[in-house]
Amino acid sequence: KNQVEQSPQSLIILEGKNCTLQCNYTVSPFSNLRWYKQDTGRGPVSLTIMTFSENTKSNGRYTATLDADTKQSSLHITASQLSDSASYICVVVSGGSYIPTFGRGTSLIVHP
Amino acid sequence: NAGVTQTPKFRILKIGQSMTLQCAQDMNHNYMYWYRQDPGMGLKLIYYSVGAGITDKGEVPNGYNVSRSTTEDFPLRLELAAPSQTSVYFCASRAEAGVSTDTQYFGPGTRLTVL
Q1: Beta strands A106-111 and A10-14, pairing class
Q2: What is the mean pLDDT of each run of 10 residues along chain B (115 residues)?
Q3: Torsion-angle region of A91 (φ positive above 0: left; ψ -120 to 50: alpha; else: beta)
Q4: Is the pLDDT reported for residue A47 higher than 70?
Q5: pLDDT of residue B36
Q6: B39: which of A7, A44, B10, B93 is 20 to 30 A away, CA to CA?
């Protein structure tokens, strides 16, 4: 069964600090992995998309990494801001399938 | 562009009632999706469409129906509402493009409560 596990479930950090969120998956065959940011009461917004051949991708202060061999991904947030407070969702898409598998998300709270 | 729009934003239904959740996009995207998000859970795909006139079931289609008569609109129909359908519903769309540009755009969601 395809699964996406994210850790930690929640995280509290101080403004200006860095943090790293983890995503492990068992989806097979693999097509691509996406990270989304979801603000409270809003729809998810895409941060990064990575295919099998990509092992890192950046979007401003967000950097995602992918290790397709160990089936792990991470999202690193640099110099956190209050506006980074949100849920971060890891999504893995199987090759040849239109059905993505969503993780439950990591809830990040950035305190001043 | 307005992007992906959804109506209504909130709705309370009684058990057994029916309703249609509206979704529209103005980006000329071929692919459209309906998801539900239960508290503390990942989004689950209900139905999707790869173009006008073509729809297919996702992971959790039971209790729902969809239609895609135009590229822009993708309504989701609940025929006999049940408490288990209490959730937040998101519509999304993406262009038919290569994976590197395959961004999925989500609407703001509809919060549905069935009592």
Answers
A1: parallel
A2: 92 96 95 93 93 94 96 96 97 76 88 96
A3: beta
A4: yes
A5: 97
A6: B93
Using DSSP, state whether B46 is helix, strand or coil. strand
Q: For residue A11, is pLDDT > 80?
A: yes
Chains A, B: CB contacts under 8 A, how many? 51
pLDDT at A52: 85
C-alpha distance from B66 to closest chain A C-alpha (Å): 16
* β strands within A26-112, DSSP E: 30-38, 45-51, 56-59, 62-67, 72-77, 86-94, 100-102, 106-111
Q: Which 8-state DSSP code applies to residue B73?
A: B
- Among B99, B100, B101, the residue to mutate for chain A (most A Cβ within 10 A): B99
- Residue A83's SS3 state is helix
Q: Is A106 exposed, middle or buried (0-12, 13-18, 19+ CB in 10 A)?
A: buried
Residues with Cβ within 8 Å of A49's Cβ and at least 6 positions away in sequence, in order, are A32, A33, A34, A57, B99, B100, B102, B103
Measured between beta carbons, the chain A residues lying within 8 angstroms of B4 are 43
Give the pLDDT of residue A18.
Answer: 98
Flag if A102 and B44 touch (Cβ within 8 Å).
yes
Please name the residue of chain A whose CA is at the shortest distance from the CA of residue B58: A99
Residue B100 confidence (pLDDT): 53
Tell me which chain A residues have a C-beta less than 8 angstroms from the C-beta of B56.
98
Check CB contact under 8 Å for A43 and B56: no
